Amino acid sequence: MGDALTELDARELSDAVRRGETSATAIVQAHHRAMDRGADLHAWLCRTDDAALAHAARIDDARDRGGPLGRLAGVPIGLKDLFVTRGIPTTAGSRILSGWIPPYQGEHARRVDDADMVLLGKLSLDEFAMGSSNENVVGEPVRNPWARDRVAGGSSGGAAAAVAAGMIPVALGSDTGGSIRQPAACCGVVGLKPTYGRVTRSGMIAFASSLDQAGPITRSVRDAAAVLEILAGRSDGDSTCVDAPVPDFVAACERGAKGLRIGVHRRSLDADGLDDDVRARFLEALALLCDRGATLVDIELPHAALGIATYYVLCAAEAASNLARYDGVRYGARVAAASVEASIEASRSAGFGPEVRRRILLGTFVLRAESYEAYYGRAARVRRLVADDHAQAFAHCDVIATPTAPQPAFRLGERNADPLAMYLGDIFTVGANLAGLPAISIPCGFTRPDRTPRLPIGLQLVGPAWREDAVLAAAAAHEDGSAWHRERPPIAADETSPASEPST
Amino acid sequence: MRVPYESVIGLEVHCQLETRSKLFSPCPLEIGAAPNTRTDAYTWGLPGTLPVLNRAAVDAAIALALATGCTVHRRSRFARKHYFYPDLPKGYQITQADEPYATAGHVEIPGFTTAEGDPWRVRLQRIHLEEDAGKNVHAGRRSGVDYNRAGAPLVEIVSEPDLRTAEQAAAYMRELRTLVRALGISQANMEEGTLRCDANVSLRPVGTETLGVRCEIKNVNSFRFLARAIEAEIRRQTDMLGHGETITRCTLGYDHEHDRLFVMRSKEDAADYRYMPDPDLPPLHIDDAWVDAVRERLPELPAARRDRWRGLGVAADDAAALAAERDLADYFDGVLRTAGESRARRAAGWVLTELLGRLAGAPIAACPVTPAMLGELVVLVEDGTVSGRSAKDVLALCWAGEGSPAAIVEARGLRQVSDTGPIDALVAEVLAEHPRQLEALRAGKTNLEGFFVGQIMKRSRGQANPKLVAERLALAIAAGTVGEEGA
Amino acid sequence: MTGLDVDDLEALARLARLTVAEEDRATLLRQLGEIVGYLDALAAVEVDGVAPWEPSAPGAAPLREDLAAEALPVEPVLAGAPAAADGLVLVPRFVES
Known about the structure:
- The complex is a heterotrimer.
- Chain A has helices at residues 10-19, 24-37, 49-64, 107-114, 157-164, 181-187, 221-231, 249-252, 266-269, 276-291, 307-322, 340-351, 354-367, 373-393, 419-424, 430-435, 468-480; strands spanning 44-47, 76-80, 118-123, 143-144, 147-151, 170-175, 190-193, 213-218, 261-264, 295-298, 399-403, 439-446, 456-462.
- Chain A is α/β, with parallel strands linked by helices.
- Chain A has one domain (5-305, 381-491): Amidase signature (AS) enzymes.
- Mean pLDDT of chain A is 93; it is low at 497-504.
- Classes of the chains: A alpha/beta, B alpha+beta, C alpha+beta.
- The interface between A and C is large, with 75 and 50 residues.
């Protein structure tokens, strides 16, 4: 094996473990070193090194005895700290959950464990997944591995940065309005948001229940497909999760682009604030897919411009509701006070950061009896129109292509004083959440050479409901015709050759 | 001159459904368990947990809707009602708001009729499903919370303001309790909190239709206190109106120790619950097949039972008493199966007087006498095989486990004597032994007949048929020769 | 409606059980005002006769059978509570309302 273990993707790693070419222990150790080297990215909130090594040893032992191995045995994984892990602190990036050790295992953690993936720790996020820059944090904001003065995107910023920096080949993120896809684009990796209901939400801390979906962040489309197969399927703990057989998503990646009809909403490309490089790389990506047999179809999405307003009404309302349980009574951080009422208010005021407080107030506003119909009621109806727009567009195309974000990663601190400007960055991603559709962001190039720093740019592909296969097929066709996904930020190089590593 | 007012009362009744697990999670449910030993991650409101609806709770809710003549909606949905309180784990309660599963039913209250003599009918506005909160426990300077009850399945039954008196309100509550127990869907125990009630009370001048300003009495925990609290509120509002004061909307608590109401909340701090559809729960679809399946399993309802028994000659009060508890009603029907429906009236008396008297408040399940045994005894009494007096002894022996009534009668020789021969012999004996009394009787002191009957019965050890004894005695006295013959 | 005033902000904060510090008030009002102003774009959309969106997961099992699982052991759960004694979660004494 010539490549460093941190260069391999998930399926290559588990194949190597299965064949005895390397051990889970060696893989975990290599990734631990990458985590050490990239500590200045602040991607991790919690590392579980000892447990990971013990787990790796069990996998190696099972392999040596010829015992059964899980689907992605020995593959390191990190979970956004929104996923509940029994016995391991789970904070949602919030002070209000500081000190909480879950007494139950979340379903995502259980499923990756069943696949014999090795948990290396919990990844940083914007508090309760609210944000697009991973700056809404208790400690340090996550830095972009391609440029330390840039954001990693959010809210799954820690996950995208860690995958980009070679600390893990796979992370689980959550996507409510773009929180998997936008950081994936900012960090030059693959991020997949499945159809709403494809993956359980049981064991994932809720931000906005009707929009949240868990999904993988990886360095290759086929890895994303493999991890989706592990995550997807019936769940006893979630009434909104589909009970249907899980398709062979990895096989779908081999379909190619021949005959693929790609819908393009031209009007959205004229919007103010769309970066020239983002537009140029997007058009190049379309050209690449056309070279491989795809055709372009112009589509209309008449309510696309209302997406952000609709999204922020709904997500704020649901967030205000979902975060009502954090009162410092049963778990988490409590601020003592003379009365229980005062204690609840003090705990919440001290426990939530500014953006979370802002959204709770906004959500409370749109749910108030006197404004409910004008805001929440109306947004729920406009959401139907947005979903209908997409359904109509898919009568003429197989996938819809857009840039993932209007701009490459912006500077840390740049948008902190202007929440609305931050929200407007979600323009291309919220549609898939509102309509409940599967969508992927894949690397499609970088800013032009005369711009510094050199920053990755993402292509988004959105599919019809339950058609992750179509999204993955198109994304894999692009990946097969390009090398962008092989680009690594400087940090990822592992000086230690795996061949010379002692296996301890 | 004082305007006469009438009180207008509507009740919101919460009833805990008896299921194995909670409404939205597979958490075990048990009343009276040690604090916080019946919780799970969902009950606790832990992050990452989601609700999944319990089918059995919906079954029970449909049964109640059918039993009260409600329309069961094919589609209903759950909403979140937000408020902060230590016993509310998620900061919201999952309930049904604008789309309840059942609307527009009615309940008839036994013992109350309209001026026209029709049964008093209380219309139900709606019934909906919701989850319960935990329980706050106060001691010393601190309060504690027990979440065992949090997430328990409740139905809330909302009546129209069709009740006019405190007694009616209490009777309505009793009827609801009878009904849900008959359906087997709830223990409906007010003291244990599995049946709870809030009462809305307003006054209006007699003869008017417009509703007055209402006040809500919260959480009364017995039928007696419910009636007293409503009476107290009617007095309070009557006094206020009598003094020319205006009633303002408020929420009241009832202090049963001092029989007085206290204001908990006034209208100014009316809550904004920020209702929203619960995004974690898809709409609840109840199709006709589901409703039909529940309908097929419905037991005979208390009102139908009462009507049937009254048709067999059972007095109205007796029928109501027998139907009040499902176990008792089932027992009585068991007695009828052996005794036969023609003996329903006497059977009712035996169950209500002799059996319940012996049980002295214990549940019918504890009764060692089976319905078949009691039915057999009723037959023995009705056909004259045993006397009423002996029958009580037979019941006692049966209770003590001596066997079936027929077997006891045979074994102990308690068969009632209905042959004239032995009875005439006893009549002769007794008359001969009491010549002075016989003289007096013949002289017109007819009340001495009872004395002689008693003496004869005593001598027969209760086994002589008293009717026959009286007949033979009268004949003997009239003949005037009995004494000489027997001497 | 657009424009939130201080009273609105106070009312929202009270409902949400959040304290808005005096020094944060002006900034928060401005930010929320801008956001709400942006959201007002929804008022222009024709939504008469449009049903609210609802998730539809084909084959999703929204109901479960009435089976009780094991309860959580009380000790570890209470160990995570900020204050507990005698099996109860403790809070400062309060009057029921």
